[in-house]
Write a structure and sequence with these properties.
By secondary structure, the protein is an all-beta fold. The chain has no helices and ten strands. It has a single domain, classed as Jelly Rolls.
């Protein structure tokens, strides 16, 4: 995707300059990476674009949780409060070049997909 910067609103680029944006979803598809991901492992987004991440796991006891971290900041937290088997989900955005991980407490990984 390209935009034309017209030099207005304080932009200092010459009129007619073209810039390429790394917009989330532009030229990306959802990909299952379940087989190559694990809770508690840190990964780096080396795609050059922001990515979206969705994970889910199965918890059989109350208190099972998922905690997603991007660049050392907790960005998503979900906890299972029931005594029956339940899925616990997390969803978050990872900027280009940032590290990310999902930690779990009593949750088994079921699925991990990334928009990349």
């Amino acid at each position: 995707m390209s935009i034309v910067i017209d030099g207005s609103a304080g932009v200092t680029y010459p009129a007619g300059t073209t810039a390429t944006l790394a917009a989330l979803g532009d030229g990306q598809t959802w990909t299952s990476v379940t087989g190559s991901r694990a809770f508690g492992t840190t990964y780096t987004n080396s795609t050059g674009k922001p990515i979206a991440v969705s994970t889910w796991g199965s918890s059989v006891s109350s208190g099972g949780n998922l905690q997603a971290t991007v660049g050392g900041v907790v960005v998503s937290y979900a906890q299972h409060e029931s005594t029956s088997n339940t899925n616990v989900n997390s969803y978050f955005i990872v900027p280009a070049g940032a590290t990310y991980s999902v930690a779990s407490n009593s949750v088994s990984l079921v699925g991990w997909v990334e928009l990349r």
